[in-house]
């Protein structure tokens, strides 16, 4: 998913992602960015001896325009990720890999406004299922990932995930549908999500 000469990782924590990318040859140079002292020192230790810089600062403030060809921000709420991306739009590289802990739809909406198209979406298991979004900048306003997918379903659930309709992903939707259905009253966002999930589950699988 990540392949670049220089990759920057904001919120590097223990430096594990950059270490993996460097030792696997996916990137030549890494830039770890942390704004907390303990994770900063963790990354310094993890990346010692590798072709990497570890910088102390807030997000893109310590990254120069054009310095990295790809960027990752993982393990935060979507609100925090979008705030980081908005702060210095001129410093964003063409390739972004973003893993919000919740509300990936906020990132999808930001990406549509900023003409970053979805190249891939994956669900990984952790404390709960996490969405990893791979985005690439485009001059076109229309993201082809959303073609043939109802817009609300695409934003809330992920257009590429809806198109793939992986059986395990569908099982997760069924579990969420059962959970939300047990409540007599739901707030507007949850009620909308339940409606969208039911519309996706109602589509028969191909084959």
Protein architecture, described:
- The protein is an alpha/beta fold and 207 residues long.
- Helices cover 40% and strands 24% of the residues.
- It contains eight helices and seven strands.
- The chain has helices at residues 16-24, 37-46, 78-87, 104-114, 151-157, 159-164, 167-181, 188-201, and strands spanning 4-10, 27-34, 52-56, 70-76, 95-100, 116-124, 130-137.
- Strands 3-2-1-4-5-7-6 form a seven-stranded mixed sheet, with helices on both faces.
- Strand 1 (4-10), helix 1 and strand 2 form a beta-alpha-beta unit.
- Helix 3 (78-87) packs parallel to helix 4 and helix 7 (167-181) crosses helix 8 (188-201).
- The longest helix has 15 residues, at 167-181.
Number of helices: 8
- Helix fraction, binned, reads 25-40%
Rounded to the nearest angstrom, the distance between the terminal CA atoms is: 29 Å
- Shape field: elongated
β-strand percent reads 15-25%
Q: Which structural class matches the secondary elements?
A: alpha/beta
CA-based gyration radius? 18 Å
Report the major sheet. Answer: 7 strands, mixed
Mean pLDDT: 94
Strand order within the widest beta sheet: 3-2-1-4-5-7-6
Low-confidence stretches: none
Topology order in helix (H) and strand (E) letters: EHEHEEHEHEEHHHH
Q: Count every beta strand, where a strand is a DSSP E run of 2 or more residues.
A: 7
In short:
With 207 residues, this protein is an alpha/beta fold.
Describe the secondary-structure layout.
Layout: E1 4-10, H1 16-24, E2 27-34, H2 37-46, E3 52-56, E4 70-76, H3 78-87, E5 95-100, H4 104-114, E6 116-124, E7 130-137, H5 151-157, H6 159-164, H7 167-181, H8 188-201
Parallel strand pairs: 1-2, 1-4, 2-3, 4-5
Antiparallel strand pairs: 5-7, 6-7
Helix pairs in contact: 3-4, 5-8, 7-8
């Amino acid at each position: 998913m990540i392949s670049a000469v220089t990759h920057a990782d904001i919120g590097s924590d223990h430096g594990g992602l950059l270490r993996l990318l460097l030792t696997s040859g996916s990137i030549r140079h890494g830039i770890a960015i942390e704004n907390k002292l303990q994770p900063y020192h963790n990354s310094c230790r993890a990346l010692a001896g590798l072709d990497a810089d570890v910088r102390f600062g807030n997000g893109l403030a310590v990254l120069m325009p054009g310095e990295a060809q790809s960027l990752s921000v993982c393990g935060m709420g979507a609100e925090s990720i979008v705030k980081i991306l908005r702060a210095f739009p001129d410093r964003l590289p063409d390739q972004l890999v973003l893993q919000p802990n919740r509300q990936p739809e906020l990132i999808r909406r930001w990406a549509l406004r900023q003409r970053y198209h979805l190249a891939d979406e994956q669900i990984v298991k952790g404390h709960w299922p996490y969405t990893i979004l791979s985005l690439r900048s485009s001059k076109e306003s229309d993201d082809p990932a959303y073609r043939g997918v109802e817009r609300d379903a695409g934003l809330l659930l992920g257009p590429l995930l809806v198109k793939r309709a992986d059986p395990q992903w569908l099982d997760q939707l069924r579990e969420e549908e059962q959970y939300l259905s047990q409540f007599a009253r739901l707030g507007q966002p949850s009620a909308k999500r339940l409606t969208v999930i039911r519309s996706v589950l109602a589509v028969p699988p191909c084959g």
